[in-house]
Amino acid sequence: MKHELFIEELAILDNSKKVVTEHKNGQEELLREYETLLHHYEKLLKTSKKTYRISDLLNNMLQKKEAEIQKVNENLRIAQESRKNLISDITHEMGAPIVGIQNYLKAMLEKRVETNDENLAMIYDNVLVVNHLIHDLFELSVLETNKSSVIMTEVSLIDITDIILGFKLEVEERGFIFQHQLVTETESIIVYIDKMKIKQVLTNIMYNAMKHTPAGGVIRIEMEWKTSDETSSHKSLMIRITDSGSGIHEHVLPYVFDRFYKGENGGTGLGLAIAKEIIEIHQGEIGVISRVNKGSTFYFTIPVKG
Amino acid sequence: MEKFYVEGTKSSPEVLLDPNEGKIIIKGQSYPENAFKFYEPILHWVEEYLSELKEEVDVMIELNLPYINTSSTKCFMMLLEMFDDAFAEGKSVKISWLYNEDNESELECAEEFKEDLSLPFELISKEE
């Protein structure tokens, strides 16, 4: 019994038992012994209660940690699934244009098809598609694996306004009507963002809007302040881009920000996925409201440093 | 008295008992297979040290235990009782319990340990 937890208490108990059995010198010694035993018993109860309480507290903590670990595991599993899907998606997306290039070149070499400008142009178009895809994929992958590729600096609201107004020329050249409604108190407000990346978000959404809107349609950008529900000191800047285009069916609406979701108008399908990644790194929100034939409104928020 | 040191492991804390500096440090998780076996030499050392300790000497006890299993808890209470008794006898002993701010349970446990003791017992949050 060398390494016993309650060794002291057991020794006391043993001793008391001995006194009782030996029954020496009658009542007085027994009473003294009894008092001593009571004292130690009370102490033992106190110690036990405290030990139970501490044990309960720590067991609770362990359970919470267990739950956290499960969550992390689940997230890891989802990320792994996502990666597997991405690899199969990439293979599929790149496969088609490359097979096209290969077939055409083979046909030309075997003289089954004429090596003329028209056919060469078709091959070139496919090369562009692959290049564009590789570029976007690389960009998305850098964003996802290296959050520090996004560099936040202090940017004034005036700069953002300038970027937005910078789209006017191109939108109008492509035959759309450009409308804007921006916030007025632009002088002293600073946001903490990666200016180039946010410009890219705007570009991706704008191009998407133009792709889905017939000529003569309206592209409208609005800026407004949003206060969070919890505290009115947490402001975000919301930017909305509305087009008068074909709209998005409600069944596919949850998927528009997914990688390779292309809708009807081609492209790499990565533009919105990249935009979403950028906004999420900025700890903002991104989303879309749309109805078929009623156009779409893409919106995102960037938090303003308090 | 000799200095006593035992390295921390995954399941047992690092223990430094330094009679020259008047420092007692126990740091780490405590869930050894046999707690009493682990703490017995420490309890013996502390008992001897406190009995020889002069009143003018200040002893700093630094405890940092994010997790203690049930058996270790009992050993700890025995240890703390020794310090408390020494304090009652006029010796200068003081406890600092370091806890992780994010871990509410750690703080609550420290408060449980502190509850029935009279000696100076400071709860200090670690910044990590």
Structure notes:
- The complex is a heterodimer of chains A (306) and B (128).
- Chain A is an alpha+beta fold.
- Chain A has 7 helices and 7 strands, in the order H-H-H-E-H-H-E-E-H-E-E-H-E-E.
- Chain A has helices at residues 7-22, 26-109, 117-145, 157-165, 168-173, 195-211, 271-281, and strands at 153-156, 177-181, 190-193, 218-227, 235-243, 286-291, 295-303.
- In chain A, a hairpin with a 3-residue loop joins strand 6 (286-291) and strand 7.
- In chain A, helix 1 (7-22) packs antiparallel against helix 2 (26-109) and helix 3 (117-145) packs parallel to helix 7.
- The longest helix of chain A has 84 residues, at 26-109.
- The mean pLDDT of chain A is 86.
- Chain B is globular, with a radius of gyration of 14 Å.
- The N and C termini of chain B lie far apart (35 Å).
- Chain B has a 6-stranded mixed sheet, with helices on one face.
- In chain B, helix 1 runs parallel beside helix 2.
- Chain B has 128 residues and is α/β, with parallel strands linked by helices.
- Chain B is 38% helix and 27% strand.
- Chain B contains 3 helices and 6 strands; from the N terminus they run E-E-E-H-E-H-E-H-E.
- The A-B interface holds A 3-8, 46-47, 50-51, 53-55, 57-58, 60-62 and B 34-37, 40, 67-71, 73-75, 77-78, 103-106, 108-109, 112-113, 115-116.
